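pipeline/complex-builder :: batch 7 item 3
reading input block
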Amino acid sequence: MSQTIDRTSKVPAAQQEKPVVDVAALGERLMGRWAAERRASRELAATPAMQRIPGQTMAEHRERVLEQLKILVEHKSVHKAFPKSVGGLEDAGGNIAQFEELLLADPSLQIKSGVQWGLFGAAVMHLGTEKHHTKWLPGIMSLEIPGAFAMTETGHGSDVSAVGTTATYDESTQEFVIHTPFRAAWKDYLGNAALHGEAAVVFAQLITKGVNHGVHAFYVDIRDKDKNFLPGIGGEDDGLKGGLNGIDNGRLHFTNVRIPRENLLNRYGDVAEDGTYSSPIASPGRRFFTMLGTLVQGRVSLDGASVVASKLALTIALSYGSQRRQFTAASDTEEEVILDYQRHQRRLLPRLAETYAMSFAHDVFLEKFDAVFTGRADTDEDRQDLETLAAALKPLSTWAALDILQEAREACGGNGFLAENRLTLLRADMDIYATFEGDNNVLLQLVAKRLLTDYSKKFAGADAGALAQYVAGQVGDATLNRTGLRKLAQSIVDFGSTARSVGYVRDADAQRQLLTDRVQSMIAEIAGRLRDAGKLPKMEAAQLFNSNQNALIEAARAHGELLQWEAFTEAVEGIEDAGTRQVLTWLRDLFGLGLIEKHAAWYLIHGRISAQRAQAITSYIDDRLLPRLREYALPLVAAFELSPELIGAPIALGAEKERQDEAMLYYREQRESGTAPIAEKAPAKPVRA
Amino acid sequence: MSQTIDRTSKVPAAQQEKPVVDVAALGERLMGRWAAERRASRELAATPAMQRIPGQTMAEHRERVLEQLKILVEHKSVHKAFPKSVGGLEDAGGNIAQFEELLLADPSLQIKSGVQWGLFGAAVMHLGTEKHHTKWLPGIMSLEIPGAFAMTETGHGSDVSAVGTTATYDESTQEFVIHTPFRAAWKDYLGNAALHGEAAVVFAQLITKGVNHGVHAFYVDIRDKDKNFLPGIGGEDDGLKGGLNGIDNGRLHFTNVRIPRENLLNRYGDVAEDGTYSSPIASPGRRFFTMLGTLVQGRVSLDGASVVASKLALTIALSYGSQRRQFTAASDTEEEVILDYQRHQRRLLPRLAETYAMSFAHDVFLEKFDAVFTGRADTDEDRQDLETLAAALKPLSTWAALDILQEAREACGGNGFLAENRLTLLRADMDIYATFEGDNNVLLQLVAKRLLTDYSKKFAGADAGALAQYVAGQVGDATLNRTGLRKLAQSIVDFGSTARSVGYVRDADAQRQLLTDRVQSMIAEIAGRLRDAGKLPKMEAAQLFNSNQNALIEAARAHGELLQWEAFTEAVEGIEDAGTRQVLTWLRDLFGLGLIEKHAAWYLIHGRISAQRAQAITSYIDDRLLPRLREYALPLVAAFELSPELIGAPIALGAEKERQDEAMLYYREQRESGTAPIAEKAPAKPVRA
């Protein structure tokens, strides 16, 4: 099977006036700061032992993934994030980068690793203190202690502060009593809980001296070495799921299980022998969010894994689309390559642009994460920014990955449905990425609240008039921009030539202005509607807020899109090779103009673009950007640097081309030898039967 | 487990001024003309023997579905469509209706039945003649002859006219020689081909006397009773797929396989002993499309099955959404039911409206199908209308089902991901519905071509000026409407009150006008751009057409949406009960206004609605329609009449409510008994740690 993506591919010499993409340099840029970690992880992911075997039963798949975790340990792939005191490297960013790439082998492997080291291990690390690290981290790192992260309950996923499990301190024995008071408080959907877990970090309401101090984390042994539940502990297997069946998700419940006082992971809250509670963070609310904030790495790695999956999906679909032929629209003998059809370009190329945007945005995100968790930039504000970034990007990228996998599947037709071509199984696995580590819709509300808070800080005490003025005047506001921008006023009535209409929005500053303006205006409008919420009774305030919930989520999404666009633009500006920069500028334009086209109704309603300009944007995408970028589809996916072993899908590795070539040769030989049957002549005049 | 949907549910007495839905009558209306067939099929689908067992291996699942086909035979569920001459009932509509409902048990069962009786059997029936019926249909009906429908090849799916398989007539032996000339011409993705099929209807280029008469169908035995391939025939198993793994899809190839001349299914084309070809249809193109047209029932049943799946998905998600609670926004003690959140309503209620529209549109479609295939209304034009209906509705409903299943999955959170709650497995199975029986994007192009043809017939010989005038004047055109309508002119500048803005579009005639106008204008615009295509060389014409491909597909989609809206409106007008009619009118408005909102950019660009009106539509949906319809969510899904056995998903059958009630009782008792721990007091003044 021949490899169809040429790493050194350049546009043919005959077209040398056209820009040329430096695939190798672009590939390096896409790999980003942790290129070495990513490449090492891909090398491992390319080995058969780490890859999924489609069609395994759930039981077989679970055992296989457990064995793969042991291989990761042997390869010393799991120590990076942990403290140097226990043999780790304290390399937060490199650790995440390498785990993201494991998705290429099998998402179950990525997620089960994430459960063991990114959730269970990270909770001990971030919520525990030195004594906990010394005691448990070595066993966690070596997989001697497989563990579960017991936060979510059947009854509470999004609202973790309301979990039902209690941890009540008993002064007389200096123990916590972990207890599940009702069925909805069973811990649920926990990886490692159904079979392999021997311990768990259990999140429970900490109660001492009759006071509930809110949710804290406790280290609890749950099974003995023979995998039998310890006394007081029970559980169930979650059974078959829509995907990720290499992970043994399950439920746990606790009946007055006693654990030593020291098993409270006490970095942010402790209980003295006499039951006195203390915390370095006075506000219970802030304490809770600080604890949860240490676990943001799950969101980082889902965002990164979604980027990886999107790259793989588009590598498959664009490779196939460049070889598959169907219908003879333009020739009597040779069929069209399907990527030459406009619709096919419309389906895949904007998604390629989105993938680039997601990839560059993820770099910014991972960089921020690394800065916070290595302590380079770790103020309260840094942490809040990181959380907002996580809450904005993870929903967009996880949804995008599902959309891209689906479109890629459909673009590969029946071939796309075969398990061997990977798209369907990957999509099934990644479905739940939209829900875990924070439901996407809930996360976007967190973003919106942050945007509203920032907005109201800026306008503290402002009356309705000032707000209205802000809304009216913000066309010229550029607080989110790094450069001064000309006003958009003329756009409202620009009935000039189409070329002029397009010329304007092709400009990066204009795209930035339009995207920024939309976020600001949406938030300002909502803030205006919510301005009296504070004065209302709780129920009415809730109703008012609820009647703006959909608009809030849309504003948060617009904010995330702007972040992606900014990251893409910054990356393009940093590229030195002129040809590559030109092609990526087109791709960035496709992303930016695609967003403006998608939200054209908003821009038209708010007078930000004219009807003529809105139409010009669509024409520019269809008639210019798509045909131009179609020529670079293969170099642009080649820069993803996915080896044949990582791509896996036969249809992306030459099988289709081989078949097409053979068929074309057959017909050509028939024509040339004169052995082709002649076509039945149509009757001179169509006769109706 | 309690049943959560009350078949007799009415809105509580306290709210009697509000309209009441007559659930039973609405259910009867939704069941439609073939209610008896649907109910009988559902009864069978509700039995454990017919239902899918999640987690079975591919091999187990395939065997199980084969056994289920035998149960269908025993229940005399497969004879309906076949000729009376062989013991059938010639009940085309009733037959399809019953097969659609089998999806509730397992989509693999629906599709494998469809392969055996709807494709393989139907090809013998529609493309063969009396002698073929007598010889093979009894064995096909009894499953004595399991068979494959060998049309698609690895290299040709959408463009069936270009399949590579040949059937060359040999006068000397009076046989056809079936041959596969290259790998791309292997028959592929065929149900029954990997294991069970003993015969196949093979589509091949009919060549006699050196002339290729185009694709015809041939009956070919492929395996003996021990399931060994006959000489000259080989194949492969397609292996694991993204879904539908209860079907043994596979590949077949033929090496000079000789079959008797009589095995040509000769209704539309025959070869005499001496090799002379004859056909009742002189034009090879029309002949081909007539043959394919007889096989439209696949599209009908995928459309219907998508409606059934959407009903099931929304029954599950809306039942769960009415019981699941999360966050205490409006109360200090009781959490909110998640369907009370605006976003949750936005996610599910427009999809409920869409499902109603799809359901009523499917009734129209099935009625038309029945009229054509029972001969009640079977002119050329009827058949063309049926095919256009099929090509417009099947893409919309199969895509909608995937979208609805996914949104329902996400709306059920982690619970939605468990296989037992069905949404993920159903979605995985139905993924390929977007591709088979005609790729959705290809089908929509057929619709667009029909719309263009109709348009150009109307304007045959018209010059560019006449076309332009049409575009300008069509605001008042009502050719697609059944009623005269007032002009929309005032809408362009209606800066009146919001109430007036909304009042106008709430009107059914205005919705019809806006939706109709959009289809007509889009087609007129494209026709204008394509008007010189006929004069261009083939390649340039193809390029011109290609540069309008995306717009064509969007126009076709708009046409399909209009058909759905018309069907919904007609159904609402036929409902006698005032309360039901009122609620369904709101639901229809949500569908219609939702379409206008979705396409608001087009309406704004083309001056059909003002900015103010566009905003008023969104406000009307958010502030009026969603809160109103939220109260009727359960009666509206109750009218789908899905029994607990058919719903299957535990979260939709009371498990969630039971858990929520238990938890609420626990906390209430704690509060009342004074044993609840008190919450930690927040510090008087927030202190930053």
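note: Chain B touches chain A through 120 residues (CB under 8 Å).
queue -> next item
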